[in-house]
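Please check both lines for our workbook:

___
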Amino acid sequence: MKVEQSPQVLNLQEGMSSSLLCNYSLSMTSIQWFQQNPGGQLISLFYIASGVQQNGRMKSTVNSKERYSQLFIRDSQPGDSASYFCAVEAQCSPDTCSLHMNDS
């Protein structure tokens, strides 16, 4: 499976809003979005199979037909300064599942 995330680098001013896009090449079971803070800690933001989830100023959507997910960040704050990653769990048979991270 190929997983691509864009943009690779995103610079926002405080208070601005933006989104990240995660495209994947095969049918999936779920998408996970992670935030890695400057200290290296990896935080799970969303685990989503379909539709929309919201957590405060952040929202994630999945369009399984078009094979993409988006992470929206509204009213950005200094604490949002981090690296963000998507991971895709492919549809599979028992004992053959694996998680595919984006290539960046």
The longest strand covers residues 28-36. The two ends are 14 Å apart (CA to CA). The chain has one domain: 3-101. Residues 14 and 77 are 5 Å apart (CA to CA).
